[in-house]
């Protein structure tokens, strides 16, 4: 008579563990950090509390916060102010964008935006919106607006009606404090308030595809306020394919070139 077959040992908790593994959420890939190189550094007004930034025909346009806030057209290479309009002191300026010959600007807590003529900053109108105004950009057809939450709104530039919105997520979790915006090759680049990173956002899904960390560019010294003097300001020159970044009260504005993302291992 042969030896009886040995029965395998089965841990009593194995079925429960298997069930838990089946029900557990799938692991979410970490958002990669994209490297860059500095191409050129330009002078930037160290008193400018930068809120919005964009480039048109080689000229830099900037909006600032604090009181008074202002709109400026700036000569990129020298930092010289070509044109400026101060906002009434009841308004804290925020994001800015242009479509055609109209310049649109937001205010922080007044629920009010303004329309200006791009070539001379003369007033053309105003519009209202619920919640706070933070960042502003455009895809050429719509205004794209942030409000300090994880939400990005899409706004009709003629009626100012909200036509849609998307929630921003990173690693599968909501990402709030979305601030200054720039539309770049079908993506939204967004500063994050009090964070050195820029998020590359898919405008269809809201998912962050990569972060760009500007910590190495931030000014240092006893006069720097680490809470306020943070990275803010992204501008894309689509014609020249140049990307510019700066921060609140930073003495430099940088042209940077993004490096390809490393392949997944």
TrEMBL record:
Record has Signal as a keyword: yes
Alphabetical keyword list: Signal
Source domain of life: Bacteria
Residues making up the signal peptide according to the UniProt record: 1-29
InterPro entries, sorted: QCT (IPR007788), Quino_amine_DH_bsu (IPR011044), WD40/YVTN_repeat-like_dom_sf (IPR015943)
Protein name as annotated: Glutaminyl-peptide cyclotransferase
The species this protein was found in: Brevundimonas albigilva
Classification of source organism: Bacteria, Pseudomonadati, Pseudomonadota, Alphaproteobacteria, Caulobacterales
